[in-house]
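Q: For a teaching session next week I want to show students how multiple molecules come together into a single three-dimensional assembly. I've collected the sequence lines for a complex. Could you give me the predicted structure tokens for the whole thing so I can convert them for display?
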Amino acid sequence: MTSIAMIEAAADRLRGHARRTPLLTSPFLDELAGRRVLVKAECLQHTGSFKFRGAWSAISALPPETRPRGVIAFSSGNHAQGVAMAAHLHGVPAVIVMPSDAPRIKIDNTRELGAEVVLYDRATESREEIGAALAEERGLTLIKPYDDPQVIAGQGTTGLEIAEQAAELGVAQAQVLVPCGGGGLTSGIALALEARAPGMRVRPVEPEGFDDTARSLASGRIQHNDRLIGSICDAIITPAPGQVTFPILKRLCGPGLVVSEDDALHSIAQAFARLKVVAEPGGAVALAAALFHADQIEGEAVIAVISGGNVDTPLYRKALERFAP
Amino acid sequence: MTSIAMIEAAADRLRGHARRTPLLTSPFLDELAGRRVLVKAECLQHTGSFKFRGAWSAISALPPETRPRGVIAFSSGNHAQGVAMAAHLHGVPAVIVMPSDAPRIKIDNTRELGAEVVLYDRATESREEIGAALAEERGLTLIKPYDDPQVIAGQGTTGLEIAEQAAELGVAQAQVLVPCGGGGLTSGIALALEARAPGMRVRPVEPEGFDDTARSLASGRIQHNDRLIGSICDAIITPAPGQVTFPILKRLCGPGLVVSEDDALHSIAQAFARLKVVAEPGGAVALAAALFHADQIEGEAVIAVISGGNVDTPLYRKALERFAP
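A: Of course. Below is the structure for the complete assembly, covering every listed component.
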């Protein structure tokens, strides 16, 4: 179970390795939202998403007898790149298991970050079997994407920074909107703010049709998504909140918010025009809620996390074409 | 004449007001450049460019008897927005004199930042006459875009941050590439680094066909551009290095570098894909030199400043279409 002490310890291990991302503001966004908007630009983290924090935290916490053997992860997205770079900087091997139909650029990027990519056929092979065989054979440790206390502790360092940076701007009371997939980032930030900024309340944000966390919070029990494909917000689509993350979300978070895909694209265009940062659709849902669903939010200030910026170029160009001011 | 003491004093006045922009890195850019690349993302500054620093420095240095009357500037670009926002946050009036054919979005943005925009007809009116009459009538102080010691001191705070942030990354020796128009940012950074990071050497970067500073440095005397329009790098096109800035550039800077417009667009696409920041063409020329003219640079590490991110959306989309990896 992740504690504030574990998050502080992760922050110590991350110091000088993860980037302290800026908390950005714009008078134009304040006007659009009708309140002060503070944006934690985690898209500026190494590998373009918060995932580097959790990966670094987990790898740096491995015991000295197992760490040198290396790590393994299943991912074709942000978690893959975070684990690949964190392992490379630790000087340990990383194996990333990806479907063979993953976009070529993601496979290439993960390799360039120093990982060994093992491809499998989604139709005929099981990634779990392949991964288990490799882990057994080489003594690799599995780094889970969210349901792991040390991963949650790493993501929680984002919350420590939010507490400090918001205080510098005079903000102690605010709802904190976080793009939510499996809940690693959301639960980590919630734990950090519970201890360091008790005037803040975290609210998970999801895309329409993939609102498992909002429904789970409303019902008090883990609910699943009907489907896992077909969203432009693919970076934050997971089957359901995690077994480890959900109890934290349930205890600490306010009701979930849900935005449309067009809201996410519109938010990408605002981040481009007003903040000069690149957001991916899934990473932009919290800013979308802050800007376009202000009636569902309370308080004089709102904090939105942009969780990643790894967006396909054609989709990004489309977002700007349709929504840039 | 701007001194390191003036830059330090400007940094004190800017603290808590200007943003300490991050120094970003990417292993992909290191590989492309063949050396370590550190990128000072000044596009993340308030109003999307470094100009906010110089404007804040100049306004905050005005004597208490003149400051409340307000300020005036001639600009349709980044300087206008920097002065407008800095004046607004000081609670003093700002008049920005702009040509009536300036893009509507720039006029609107400057007004939304709290300034009074006075339009003039480029064909029939003189902005100097209009400005002088307004300044006389209302007691406004002119904030020059670069040829002013307090403006240079404000831009020089970028250099103080570069020295500190590069030291944190273990870099003390490097060429520092800076997009150069009138030379305010370049001379300010050069003065700051002379005092705080003597192992670094500043080199101005300009677009082809508008290389007044490179030619001035080569000849030892101020040279002019043949023309002032027709560049996509419009944010850094000025008639010639300034009377105040050029002696500083001449004393402290290495030879100028020149890049093509395609280099600038390519650099924009790399900043998008690898750093997740939005660069404007003029703001991207230094990164372009670092990435695509590595043979003209020396040392194991290079530092490039992205000076602004206020780019027209269609041009940005074009840069991504042509050059995004």
